[in-house]
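*** Fold description ***
***
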Amino acid sequence: MQLPHCPQCQSEYVYQDGGMLICPECAYEWQINAVTEEATDVKKDAYGTPLQDGDSITVIKDLKVKGSSLVVKVGTKVKNIRLVDGDHDIDCKIDGIGAMKLKSEFVKKA
């Protein structure tokens, strides 16, 4: 069985200790049962297509960058996304802008 990445810091170096999973990088601990609950929480794009880490997406709406005059334009392609927990559930890098967090409701799978 392959262990999941750490839900706190996304580290791949998680190990099992009894009924707990432990991340050596951020010291986060959680129960093995919590993994199955997280696995059912599938992130979907604006059209209901499931998203996974490493997917490519396209922005479907102009998005203003908070605290800046920059705008992420409709049709902007983003490669190699990473799914995270929270309101903004996509972590990515956009050319010309840099690291960003996006909401899955404003993207479609490419």
Observations:
- Residues 67 and 108 are 25 Å apart (CA to CA).
- The mean pLDDT is 88.
